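Honest question from a wet-lab person: if I give you the sequences of every part of a complex, can you actually get the arrangement of the whole thing, not just the pieces? Trying it with mine:
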Amino acid sequence: MATEADSSSDEIDWRSEASSVEVTRRERLNEFYRKRLYEPGLIAWSDMRTRIGLSILSVYIAMAVAAVFGLWRNPSPNQAERLLAPFQTIQYPLGTTQSGVDLLALMIDSTPFILLMVLAGGVWATSLAVVVGTVSGYKGGAVDSAITSISDFVMAIPGLPLVIVLAITLSPENPIFLGVVLTINYWAGLGRSIRSQVLSIRQKSYVEASRTMGTSTPRIILKDILPNIMPYVMVNFVLAARYTIFASVGLYFIGVLPYTGQNWGVTLNNAYNQGGLFTFQALHWLLVPIVTIVGLTFALVLISQGMDRIFNPRVRTRLTGESETVTEENESATTESM
Amino acid sequence: MDYYLKRTAKIPITILAVATLTFGLIRLLPGGPFTQLRIELLQQGVPVEQVNARIEALQNIRPDAPLWQQYIDYLIGIAQLDMGESISLGQPVVDVIAGALPWTVFLVLTSTVLMFVIGVLVGAVQAYWEGSRFDQFFSGGSIFLMSVPYYIFAVIFVFFFAYQFGWFPTGNAVDRGLEAGLNPTYIISVLHHAALPIIAFTIGGIGSTALNMRGNSIQVLGEEFVEVARLRGLTDGRIATRYVAQNAILPMYTGLLLLIGFRLGGTVVLEEIFSYPGLGYYLIEAVNANDYPLMMGCFLVITVTLVVAVYIADLTYGLIDPRISTGDSDGY
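Yes, you can. This is the full assembly:
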């Protein structure tokens, strides 16, 4: 049913939808899964960058699982020899710190915290940006200028200094709350760019058709506009997550955020301040948290670069060429129009 | 002209809003920033009136006045460049900031320009030889650079070039005891101290700039007008600069506005690592010393710097893109 609706003109669209919503709900879900998740996923997976990125990311998820289920020992002082070099013993593969803490245990221990924070930051920043961007781009007029003025103001405040000042006021210790605080004004810039995309989409004939039919604004945004900007949003979700890591580790590193036990940034800070800078023996103490941080951001950047492919209409068309159905031709057309 | 007028009018409004925000934050901060100081002074046996007078001098607002009065006093103070007195340094906040601001601007400006120029050049060459060994190598490199936070470069540089090899200083903006002036010794000292922070900050941004430029250029190279220009027999140099580069840089220039904001904020971590006495450095010092007047002063000035920087960038945008000067900036 949805197939027919998609392939035919907008006039038929509303009629068919009105007549058989009940019957096609499951089909529509299926269709949605295939077109918005499965196919983009396939394209993304065909890209080497995404594959490498996802593989690296799975290592971090494994680390988080290990931490949650206690599969590796907890970090504690004097659990091993001091400043043990990495790759010397199987027991302490990444070596130890100056106070004899197993570095691998340190890294694993803070993974769930960091992942939760990153997820929270990404979800908060992108979802707020999507809401702000779509509403302001689609509604226009007074709503638009109000929202634009507010986001202009928010954009005028530099992120990290604001977070530092807020961190003192709120001392965010919960990872989810911390993620939100870190990206407190990240949404503004992203919202602006989503708005400009929505501005071009709202000119499209099918949106205009929905509007003349009197479809409600939330429905138009949800059904007609959101699916078109989803790939862009996904890429930016990953970039927002990367920003959250950069900001959090940086602020932990300079000691502004409240310490909630050890984590990658705190370890880096300790290594930096407690003599890690002076000898080569302590170099691994600096390098282990660095590699851990860079590994995660590298995975995220690779995934975002790979997902960028979904944007590229030529790649899309090649895939649809393999199975010649009306739907998919149509699909590539919508992608192209983005 | 209407656009420029509107754009200029926005500046005082934004600054007022930010000043209101800092005022609100000072009021909001746990227990009030001066509670601790007041208790300390009272415990030392200082009379109440003197304590109040001292705190008034520190914060440029009277603690016993009603809220609206405090707010107006605060705004008037800022308008007169009076931001109170730093608790930890014992100097007026304005003096501290006046000494720090030029260094931060120098750092951000130099590294952002370098980053932009290098990134654009690399990206353009990559796009021109798309798929070549050079392109593949630098694409991989760019993705890697994008995933390394700038402060990681800073830490590694400090470790090797400052502490291990001793080639560069580990703190300050110039050698101690050097008179400021336009003499070679002074300038060399400044560059020597700024080299590592600038390089670290520049490298961190090259990756995404190059990737953006590459993407935009490839898109432009596929456009018909480039083909037409070739058929017309224009020189490669002219096509590269007037046709491809200009059209590819335009969308990046808008992104640059956002980037300035992130980079100005980023100096906080950078200056702390290099002990470089800019705004960010004093912000952290103030945070660690519970020095609220200095902290809010730094925050306010960083924000105002950003507002001004974006304003300048916005105005120059019209010079690059003639379309913008007639309509408003949002004519997507």
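Two things worth pointing out. Confidence is low (pLDDT under 50) at residues 1-20, 313-318, 321-338 of chain A. The CA atoms of residues 173 and 260 of chain A lie 6 Å apart.
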